[in-house]
């Protein structure tokens, strides 16, 4: 009996059903990530997982079941958490893992801005949104979305909360927190500067429009005065001609 693996040749002993190429993995992350974000970082429904599997199958030309996609994503989540812990314990700010940037974009909630969760310019621009905190909770819930997680409940329940470390590890965490705070303040200052520049640009445009309006208004006013003076002059000339004719008739 022919197995499903005959649907695509195997190169170098690779089992296409068990192994995932980099391209297939990114297709999976794109398909799952789009639905994950649209649902507000909530777990996907069964029919949505089926759509993800169909998308991966279409791109990879290999029949992928939704359970295979769930298991692959579960593996990626576990690897992602390990990379997060590794970065927190070291002085590195970036991971060499090829999928880290994509996973971090999908799994990490929007960064908190300590002390800056308020409006700018009397509420015209709001920097933080209450949905951020809901998305954070939903993001943690999604970490338990895939099968195979029941056997590692202790690991999954500690999402984004690394275990207790030594004093040195705590100092490194504090350093990472200060760097995150500094980066957040820097990003906020950039956003504020962009807002101020935008307001200045709008004020310049409004001032230009006001000057153009006044010039146009002044031009129309002069035209009206000129036409009025011309009409008055015509009326005066007409009166003078009538007076001259009347004087000639009387003298005649």
Automatic annotation (TrEMBL):
Domain Myb-like: 20-77
PROSITE patterns cross-referenced by the UniProt entry: MYB_LIKE (PS50090)
Record region (Disordered): 139-175, 232-252
Coiled-coil intervals: 192-223
Spans through the membrane: none
Transcription in keyword set: yes
Listed GO MF terms: transcription cis-regulatory region binding
Pfam families: Myb_DNA-bind_4
Sorted UniProt keywords: Coiled coil, DNA-binding, Nucleus, Transcription, Transcription regulation
Compartments (UniProt record): Nucleus
Signal peptide boundaries: none
Record's keyword annotation contains Transport: no
Domain of life: Eukaryota
Matching Gene3D superfamilies: Homeodomain-like (1.10.10.60)
InterPro entries linked: ASIL1/2-like, Myb_DNA-bind_4, SANT/Myb
GO CC aspect terms: nucleus
Listed PANTHER family: OS01G0718900 PROTEIN (PTHR31307:SF6), TRIHELIX TRANSCRIPTION FACTOR ASIL2 (PTHR31307)
Protein name, as recorded: Myb-like domain-containing protein
């Amino acid at each position: 009996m022919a197995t499903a693996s005959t649907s695509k040749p195997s190169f170098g002993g690779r089992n296409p059903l068990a192994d995932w190429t980099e391209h297939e993995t990114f297709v999976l992350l794109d398909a799952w990530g789009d639905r994950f974000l649209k649902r507000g970082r909530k777990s996907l429904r069964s029919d949505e997982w089926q759509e993800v599997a169909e998308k991966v199958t279409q791109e990879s030309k290999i029949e992928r079941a939704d359970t295979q996609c769930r298991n692959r994503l579960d593996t990626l989540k576990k690897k992602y958490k390990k990379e997060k812990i590794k970065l927190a314990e070291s002085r590195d700010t970036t991971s060499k893992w090829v999928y880290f940037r994509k996973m971090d974009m999908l799994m990490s909630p929007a960064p908190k801005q300590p002390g800056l969760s308020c409006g700018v310019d009397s509420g015209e621009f709001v920097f933080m949104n209450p949905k951020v905190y809901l998305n954070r909770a939903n993001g943690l819930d999604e970490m338990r979305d895939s099968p195979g997680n029941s056997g590692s409940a202790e690991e999954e329940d500690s999402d984004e909360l690394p275990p207790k470390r030594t004093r040195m590890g705590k100092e490194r965490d504090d350093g990472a927190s200060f760097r995150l705070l500094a980066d957040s303040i820097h990003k906020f200052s950039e956003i504020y500067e962009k807002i101020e520049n935008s307001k200045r640009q709008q004020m310049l445009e409004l001032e230009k429009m006001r000057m153009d309006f006044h010039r146009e208004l002044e031009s129309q006013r002069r035209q009206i005065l000129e036409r009025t003076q011309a009409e008055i002059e015509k009326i005066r000339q007409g009166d003078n001609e009538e007076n001259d004719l009347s004087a000639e008739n009387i003298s005649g």
